[in-house]
Amino acid sequence: DGYFPPFIWLEKWILFSSIGTQQMLSFNNILYSVNKKTQKQFAEKISPSLEPTLIQQMEYVFSQVSGIKVQKNINYHGGEIDFVVLSEHENAALCFQVKGTVAPDSARTVQRVESRAQEGMDQLARFDALTSQEKDTIINNAFGTTLSGINLQNILMIRSCAGSATVWVKNDKYPILNYALLGNIISRKISKQDNSIIDFTATIHRLQDEMIERSKSHIVYDNLKIGDYEIEFPNVDSEMNFIIKMHTQTLGVLKEFEKVPV
Length: 262
Hints:
- By secondary structure, the protein is an alpha/beta fold.
- It is built from ten helices and nine strands.
- The protein has a five-stranded mixed β-sheet, with helices on both faces. Strands 1-2 form a two-stranded antiparallel ribbon.
- A hairpin with a 2-residue loop joins β3 and β4 (about 80-85).
């Protein structure tokens, strides 16, 4: 199905690509395959842990940046902020709503993922609608600080996919960030010894634009021959070398990026 690297059993030997395995056998791809093959066990044993696990992984990523603090599951009257990153010296905070969905593979699963992403957008809008003083109080109570006029940046955090254009039209106001892009942003910051978060949402938008431009995604038409019939169907092709380079850059800096915290 394209989500696992190929392993070929040749009698006494197994043929596989070590590079292909490293690049394709990611945490998200394992989740996808388990969900496809054992849906009942996935729903009972894995699904309840998806968002807490993603939050734990975010904790690890941001722990590699000096000079910032994090808090998770901050409750306030009328809602909850899943994850907040605070930079006191910049008087700035990143407020995340986290949705740990699995990558979709059909129109129905796209709708399911999209509904969860839309729920996150609504939660961001609810928090954003509070007065500046109310938001400052929530952040100060969570971190034990006395800041005023905090520069708050609201972000939707997802495991991999947010759905269709219905959700993406809100990306300008509330940037959509997945775990892979978060890792790349932080790995670049660490490499440059940059611990600033003041322009974090602008950085997300720049990286999104860079990915669109450099991945060169486009539609190609492939042919599938079955007996006397030949079927032409659209497929999406892209510059995989750029995407692989981004991922290896992340793994080179964040050694436990794909590890699930215990």
